Amino acid sequence: MELSVLNIKGEDTGKKVSVSEEIFGIEPNEHAIYLDVKLYLANQRQGTHKSKERAEINHSTRKIKKQKGTGGARAGSIKSPVFVGGGRIFGPRPRNYTFKINRKVKTLARISALSAKAKIDAISVLESFTFDAPKTKSYLTVLNSLSLVNTKTLLILPEVDSNVYLSSRNIPKAKVTTVDLVNTYDLMNADRLLISESALSNLETLLNK
User: Fold this and answer.
1) pLDDT band at residue 54, thresholds of 50, 70 and 90?
2) Distance from the CA of 26 to the CA of which of 20, 38, 59, 66 falls in 20 to 30 A?
């Protein structure tokens, strides 16, 4: 499979790059994608939710009314869940939401996500570029040239470029990442993948391990 290389002005440079069919041309495995996205979202949860049960409520322990003769049900403690301010029955407790999936499944999920984007022609390869200084306007100019201002984009770089990252940080729907930090959620969440020409070989090497 061959992809055209664009410059940051959105113009076709005339160059083409060959990409691996084993990464960009397989039939996507939707279940692997589902598992990896589920794992990513589970890992974002803090799991620090907590409510107090009746044993943890700080209230008086006196009996709030006499046992008999009131015409109502017995009531021994204001901490009872049936009263306002009482403990909560089976409330949430701190827990860890993470779970494990095999490394090969994670790799298959990322490959499937890239193949799914390639199928719908949602991948653009850009000539390697950088900025002299971090300026939001510079990154907006690039997106304008590619007609992607209001589109969810994910730019994949071979390594950290502070100027490019800082230039994109304040732009809604624009995200910049590096090859070693690419994950299935970001790939599927983006409407358009922008892959730096110099990042392609690194990406293929990483996923072919």
Assistant:
1) very high
2) 38
Residue type, 72: G
Would you identify the CATH topology of the domain 2-29+102-207?
A: Ribosomal Protein L4; Chain: A; (3.40.1370)
Structure tokens at 189: 């969440």
The predicted structure's pLDDT at residue 2: 86
3-class DSSP state of 62: coil
Residue 40 pLDDT greater than 80, yes or no: yes
The pLDDT tens digits for 56-103 are 999 988 999 999 999 999 998 999 999 999 999 999 999 999 999 999
Count CB atoms within 10 A of the CB of residue 57. 17
Cβ(204)–Cβ(19) below 8 Å: yes
pTM: 0.84
DSSP bridge partners of 195: 125, 156
Per-domain residue ranges of the chain: 2-29+102-207, 52-91
- Residue 45: Cβ within 10 Å count: 12
| CA distances from residue 115 to 119, 170, 188, 208 in whole angstroms, order as listed | 6, 29, 11, 14
Amino acid (one-letter) located at 128:
S
